[in-house]
């Protein structure tokens, strides 16, 4: 398994251990993780701290030229909000752990020339499937249903 996807999965597991939604993300620039995060909506009482947003926030302010050289790894297909952030900052490549439990804005990313790679990683699918089965109300809240 790719080391960066593995780091995103570690973030997802950290979120689950904190009582949150198990989605993780890392922002990678030139082979180094510069931002990592996980969904902290429950932990922080936040409406926007999805894993991708948390990783971007934890990377801190960056020049546009840096974002244009990054890859964002996320354990789950990015929602419309996170897709918008990817497009806003010009991140050219997104690696997705899985999109079977939730299909986000992948089409919009591709239409805007973002390279989208879906790994369909069994661990990512298992983490989300188990979480959704045990926490359907929380999951529906997170995806806006």
Give an overview of the whole structure.
With 145 residues, the chain is an alpha/beta fold. The chain has eight helices and five strands; from the N terminus they run αββαααβαβαβαα. It has a five-stranded mixed β-sheet with strand order 2-1-3-4-5. The longest helix is centred in the N-terminal third of the chain and has 15 residues, at 3-17. It is globular, with a radius of gyration of 14 Å. The N and C termini lie far apart (33 Å). The model has no long low-confidence stretch (mean pLDDT 95).
Give helix % range.
40-55%
- Residue stretches low in confidence (pLDDT < 50, at least 5 long) are none
* Form type: globular
Q: Give me the oligomer status.
A: single chain
Please give the radius of gyration in angstroms.
Answer: 14 Å
Structure classification: alpha/beta
Sequence of strands across the biggest β-sheet: 2-1-3-4-5
Mean pLDDT: 95
**What proportion strand?**
15-25%
Helix tally equals 8
Give the terminus-to-terminus CA distance: 33 Å
Quick one: biggest sheet?
5 strands, mixed
Q: Helix and strand string, N-terminal first?
A: HEEHHHEHEHEHH
- What's the total count of β strands? 5
